[in-house]
Structures are given as C-alpha cells and as structure tokens.
Design brief:
The complex is a heterotetramer of chains A (123), B (187), C (137) and D (118). Chain A is mainly α and 123 residues long. Chain A is built from three helices and no strands. In chain A, helix 1 packs antiparallel against helix 2. Chain B is mainly α. The relative contact order of chain B is 0.06. Chain C has a single domain, classed as Orthogonal Bundle (Helix Hairpins). Chain C has seven helices and no strands. In chain C, helix 3 runs antiparallel to helix 6. The longest helix of chain C has 32 residues. At the B-C interface, helix 1, helix 2, helix 3, helix 4 and helix 6 of B face helix 1, helix 2, helix 3, helix 4 and helix 6 of C.
Chain lengths: 123, 187, 137, 118
C-alpha cells in the first residue's frame, strides 16, 4: 500500500516534469523560429526542439492516462511524430539547399576575413 | 443563464484571435502561395476549434476535406494559373469596403435575435436536436448520434449530397478534358 | 448593448470573419484569390452553425455504449448534457458540398486561363471588349 | 495516477501561444521555405494541442483527429515540397528522368531521384 502510493507520487512528479519541460522546449523553439536571422537557423530551432518537446509532452501524457487504449494511441502518435518530424525537417532543408538558398553568415562568422566559402560549394 | 463554466471555453478567445489574424493576412497578402497555405491553416484552426466546440465529426471531416483536399485543389489550380495577384485598385477597395461594412452592420443589427452562446435552453438547442438523442437509443441503437442522423433520419439529404459531388466531378471532367489532358497542355 | 454583445461575442467575431471573406470575394481581381475568399467565408459560416449548437458543459453527441443499447437510458438522459447534433449533421453535408463547389470553380478558372491567358478579371473583360469591337458589335 | 486538468490547461495554453508565434513567422516569412517550415511546425503544435486537450477533457475522440492531423501534416509538407521542386503534383519518376536528360541537368539526378518527394 505504502509502496503503491510512493509509485503514484513518483509517476505524478515525473509526468509533471515531462509536461512542463516539454512545453518549455516547444515555446523556446517557437521563439527561436521567430527571432533567429535566417532560414537554416530557424529550421534548427524548429526541428530540434519540436521533436524533443513533442516526445516529452507525449511521455507526460502517457503517464497521466495510465494503462489504457488512450495511452496506446498516444504512444502511436508519439512514434509517428518521432519518425516524421525529422524527416519533414530534412526534406525542407534539402529543398531549400537545392534551390540555392544561402545561409546568412556575414555577421555571425567567427573570422570575417574568410568570406563564408565552405557553404557555397555544391557537392 | 450559463450553468457550467468549464476550462475549454477559454480556448474560444485564443482561436478567435488566431482566426481573425489569419483571415486578415489572407486578404492582404499578394503571394498566392502564401494565401493558399494560410487558407489551409484557417481550415486547420477552425477544425481545432470544432473539437473544442464538441463537434468531433465535423472536425474530422474539416481536417481531411477542408485542410487536405481543398488545399491540394487550390495548389493545383495555382500551379496551372499564376503565382502572384495584382494589387487591388483604390476605387475597388473602397467600393468593396462599403459593401462589406453595410452588410456587416446589418448582420450586427440582427445579432440581438441570436440565442445566447452556450445556452442549453435556447430554441435551437431545446427541441428537435435533443429529441434525436433519445430517439436514436430506441430506433437505431448506435452510439454516434451524428452518424445516425446523417445516414438514417436525414438519409435523403446525404443522397442529394452524393448527387452534388457526382455532378461536380462530372463538370470538372468535362471542363478540363477527360483523361487529365489539362496539366500536360501547359508544359 | 454591451451585455448583449458579451453574451454573443462569438457571433460578433464570426460576422467579422465572414465580412473578411466577403471583402476578398468582392475586392480581389484575381480569380483564385476570389475562391480563397469564398472558402474563408464558407468556413466562417460553418463556425457560426457549430457555435449555435454548442452547450456549455456539454459532451460531444456520442452516447456511452450501454446507453446506446437501451440500458438505463432514462437514468442517463436525466443528468447528461450533450451539444446539439443537428448543426453538426448539416455542416458535415455542407463541407463536402463546399469542396465540390470549390473544385468546380477552380476547374472554371483553369479553363479561363487556357482561353484568355490571364485570371485577372479586368484583363478578361478588356479582352472581351476588344474582341467585340473587332467584330463590330 | 489521475490527470491534472489545470496543468493540462496551462500546457495547452502554452502550445496555443507557440501556435500563434508560428503564425507570425508564417505571415512574415521572407522565403517560401520559411513558410513551409512554419506550416509544418504549426501542424506539429496543433497535434500536440489536440492531444493535450483530449487528455484534459478525458475524451478519446480528439486523439483520432490528432492522429489524422499528424498523417496529413507530413504528407502535406512533402507534397508542397515536391510541387515546388517539379512544378507539378503528377510528375512520374520516369518522366523526371526524361526531363533531366532533355535539359542536360544530370549533375545530381542519380542521387536525388529515389527520394522523389524531397
């Protein structure tokens, strides 16, 4: 009985932590998409934090929903987002790169003498 | 008047604000691609609001048909026609604005006759809609009342809808040429 | 007046949305943009219907399995609150018909583009006018 | 383990804020790819919002809609990108190869062809 209560409390804390940190990741990614200077950095913000935040939120919700059909569907959506979100990010980045969209390097390059030649070469 | 206040109704404000901003952006943007994508987003947002408004079947259809098929159709038409639209001339802008303001003022004048939002005893919600809920249990005995009404009580409506979709498909096929010749002519 | 609006704020916002769509239909010369406006107008009308059917504190009109088969139905309906299913049915039909209309309109636009080479309505009426002048009508 | 409606509500509101920020990027987006990225990310956040909402009101139906969105969002992103790469939604892979041969653009054809959509 005591152990069960302890497990319940632990699951509560883990789920709250997962939900809150997931929301923080998603919000941080969104602010990054709004604030960062060019397409590739925005894509970095959106692609990386969205996947992690989505998975954390899914884990938190699965812990809340318990052992039921609901949490099976939640796990399904989680797996699907885990597979498709990086794929879509890669597809967008690949399309932009092949279309010839240049990264914005002038202000943020470490040494301004070498004028951003590594990214301009095509494979 | 309003018996229960649940948390979900706070989402109404959020979705209304987002829908308004998307609608105004669609009208103002000149890039047709952005307008088409924002139309898809508008459908998606309204579908999410449908979930919050308890209309899950409508949300499902709107997501699949409104946000999916409509966007694909608009994208395809944009591909076959043009990417940019000309700016609206000033005379036309003011004329359209006048018409819209007059129509909107008339609708606002009629606002007082609408039922209060979320009222369970309003005329729209009190009679026939709620009777279907109890009748379904006796007549058809399936859980989803919307499906029961759609395919049984109002089955002729649905048949008419099928006729409309068939006629539209026939019209599109006749206009564009059978066998998908329209896309190849442009290349 | 303020109280009246506060009880019906959703209809007020939806009327504004409908007017935004109507403005796009009337003002834009581009035919695709015009159909986009029509779609927005249409979706706003769907929202109007669904918000009329909303009941605060209600559930979606999907009955629990045992009630649907007639077990303790009386008991259930004495306390359960559901949103109105009838607007949902009407709008389900309207969404599908709306897409059929949109497809038809877009097919017409594509056909106009093939015939005239443009989809701006000013240029289309110019082309019509000049062809009438040529025929001496 | 029970659900905590207030926490779910807060998370859902946070996701709604994230959706609004994505809308801002969608309006501003200087290039087409920014807009596609914003739409894709908006769709992911919509799925998350629906899932959190479904658990908050303890309603299984909304989860199905979230699943549909997740599928639709991915397919829509890939379709839009394909559309803007090949200027058509109905180009078959064999036709792409023929077109490449005609235009003489054979630089990356071998590698990019199997991915098709991207």
């Amino acid at each position: 009985m005591d152990l069960m209560q302890f497990i319940d409390l632990a699951l509560d804390i883990v789920s709250i932590a997962a939900l809150v940190s997931g929301m923080v990741f998603v919000l941080a990614g969104s602010i990054g998409v709004l604030r960062l200077p060019d397409f590739y950095t925005r894509m970095h913000a959106a692609g990386v934090t969205d996947t992690l935040g989505a998975e954390l939120i899914m884990i938190g919700l699965i812990l809340q929903a318990g052992w039921s059909a609901l949490s099976l569907k939640l796990a399904l959506i989680g797996v699907f987002i885990f597979l498709t979100s990086p794929t879509a990010s890669h597809a967008v980045a690949n399309a932009a790169y092949r279309a010839g969209l240049k990264p914005h390097l002038k202000r943020f390059a470490p040494g301004r003498e070498e004028e951003a030649e590594p990214t301009e070469t095509r494979p | 008047m309003i018996q229960t206040v649940d948390l979900t109704q706070y989402f109404d404000y959020v979705f209304m604000a987002m829908l308004l901003s998307v609608g105004i952006a669609v009208v103002r943007l000149r890039s047709l691609f952005a307008a088409v994508m924002l139309t898809g987003v508008y459908s998606l947002l309204s579908a999410v609001w449908f979930v919050s408004l308890d209309a899950v079947d409508v949300a499902f259809t709107e997501a699949a048909v409104g946000a999916g098929i409509s966007t694909v159709l608009l994208l395809g038409a944009m591909l076959l026609t043009s990417r940019e639209c000309n700016p609206v001339p000033a005379s036309r802008h003011w004329a359209a604005l006048a018409v819209v303001v007059v129509a909107g003022a008339l609708l606002f004048y009629a606002l007082g006759d609408m039922p209060v939002y979320g009222d369970p005893n309003s005329p729209a919600n009190a009679y026939v809609g709620m009777e279907y809920m109890t009748m379904t249990v006796d007549d058809i005995a399936i859980p989803n009342v919307v499906t029961a009404v759609l395919s049984s009580y109002r089955g002729f409506d649905t048949m008419g809808e099928v006729f409309v979709v068939f006629a539209a498909g026939l019209g599109v096929a006749l206009l564009l040429g059978l066998g998908g010749a329209a896309g190849k002519r442009e290349d | 007046m303020v109280e009246l609006l506060a009880d019906r704020f959703n209809y007020a916002v939806i009327i504004v949305l409908m007017m935004v769509g109507l403005y796009a239909v009337i003002a834009s010369a581009n035919l695709v943009k015009r159909l986009v406006g029509l779609t927005i107008f249409q979706t706003s009308v769907f929202l109007l219907y669904i918000t009329i059917g909303k009941v605060f504190g209600g559930e979606p009109p999907i009955l629990p399995g045992d009630v649907a088969h007639g077990y303790h139905a009386e008991d259930h309906f004495s306390h359960a609150v559901y949103s109105n299913p009838l607007p949902h049915v009407l709008i389900l039909t309207a969404i599908v018909v709306g897409v059929a209309t949109l497809a038809m309109g877009l097919a017409l636009v594509v056909r106009i583009r093939e015939a005239y080479g443009t989809i701006e309505d000013v240029e289309i009426s110019d082309a019509d006018y000049s062809s009438e002048v040529e025929r001496g009508a | 383990m029970t659900s905590i409606p207030i926490l779910d509500f807060a998370v859902a509101l946070g996701l709604a804020v994230a959706m609004a920020i994505m809308l801002a990027r969608l309006f501003l987006g200087p290039t087409l790819y920014d807009r596609v990225l914003a739409v894709n990310s908006f769709g992911t956040k919509t799925v998350l919002f629906l899932v959190v909402f479904a658990v908050m009101v303890n309603r299984g139906d909304a989860i199905d809609i979230a699943l549909l969105y997740a599928l639709l969002n991915f397919i829509a992103t890939i379709a839009i990108l394909k559309f803007f790469r090949y200027r058509s939604l109905e180009v078959a892979l064999s036709e792409i190869a023929i077109r490449r041969r005609d235009t003489g653009d054979d630089a990356q054809s071998d590698r990019s062809e199997p991915t098709g959509g991207a």
